[in-house]
Write a structure and sequence with these properties.
Elements (H helix, E strand, L loop, with lengths): L1 E5 L5 E14 L4 E7 L4 E5 L2 E5 L4 H14 L5 E6 L4 H6 L7 E6 L2 H11 L5 H6 L6 E5 L2 H7 L3 E7 L13 H10 E13 L4 H12 L4 E7 L8 E8 L9 H4 L20 H9 L1
Parallel strand pairs: 6-7, 6-9, 7-8, 9-10
Antiparallel strand pairs: 1-2, 2-3, 3-4, 4-5, 10-12, 11-12
């Protein structure tokens, strides 16, 4: 038995699975959990792989830690999405974080992840029960929340791919709202899809971010379970040099995939991507 996610142009990512653990249609999407042969649990939403439990840190570490280590003092963090719990787990490794707010539209993703995926170390259950001192869960629309709230040092968008339902999170209007919601200095990061297969969406998002943020950076990372390399985009408010991170602070984090000592390696990109971005 296999689970296959098909990308554009007939490109697929497949896992051999032992069994389907759960399939449920929530108000917003179809949620599936599988037990794979070699990569632990697989969480899929609307047929797309969100993570495999044995390898998900190859996504969550490069999403979270580069921006957290580039910001001089990230006390207040906003996460849009992230219902599987991996992003909040990584954010809370940073001792200076006083409050992390996670806004997830689908409560069932959080509940299913807490019960069946269990990559969060128990954080999701505590958040669901309002028992997590440094983290707060809000079930609601992230776009609406960010319009009505501000004062964040770091904003992390851990959404589905930049097509379909998540398209609004990659609009110039949303970037303007996020910029306003950031403190100065502040830093914004979003996953931005497959470098090779979502090139148009990636470069479109980069172009829109350049119109809004004081500085924009592209980087990528090979993610287990995705059509890698996987792209990330960073927007800066104020004076932050994203090419420099606090390597001393990083020593406390016990990272497995992202290497702050080789931070510059994140910025490697195919020549044609570099040429496109330089023209924008």
């Amino acid at each position: 038995m296999e689970f296959i996610e098909w990308y554009p142009k007939g490109y697929g990512v497949a896992f051999k699975v032992k069994k389907k653990v759960l399939e449920k249609k929530s108000k917003y999407q179809k949620i599936e959990v599988y037990e794979t042969e070699g990569f632990g649990k697989l969480l899929a939403i609307d047929g797309t792989v969100q993570l495999v439990s044995e390898g998900e840190k190859s996504y969550h570490e490069p999403l979270v830690h580069p921006v957290m280590l580039a910001h001089p003092n990230p006390k207040r963090v906003l996460i849009i999405g992230g219902g599987d719990g991996g992003t909040i787990r990584e954010v809370l490794k940073h001792e200076e974080v006083e409050e992390a707010v996670m806004v997830e539209i689908d409560k069932e993703v959080v509940e299913i992840s807490a019960k069946h995926v269990q990559i969060d170390g128990g954080i999701l259950t505590r958040m669901l029960n309002n028992e997590c001192k440094r983290a707060k869960l809000i079930i609601g629309d992230g776009v609406k929340f960010i319009r009505e709230n501000s004062g964040f040092d770091v904003i992390i968008v851990d959404s589905t791919d930049p097509v379909g339902p998540a398209e609004m999170l990659f609009s110039e209007e949303f970037y303007k709202t996020a910029y306003r919601a950031l403190n100065d200095p502040g830093i914004y990061v979003t996953q931005a899809g497959s470098v090779y297969l979502f090139t148009e969406e990636l470069t479109s998002a980069y172009s829109k971010m350049k119109k809004v943020f004081d500085g924009v950076y592209y980087y990528s990372f090979p993610v287990i379970g995705y059509a890698s390399p996987w792209a990330f985009l960073v927007g800066i408010k104020g004076e932050i040099d994203f090419r420099k991170v606090n390597t001393e602070k990083a020593k406390k984090l016990n990272l497995e995939y992202y290497d702050p000592e080789r931070h510059e390696a994140l910025f490697q990109m195919p020549k044609y991507i570099r040429e496109i971005l330089q023209r924008l």
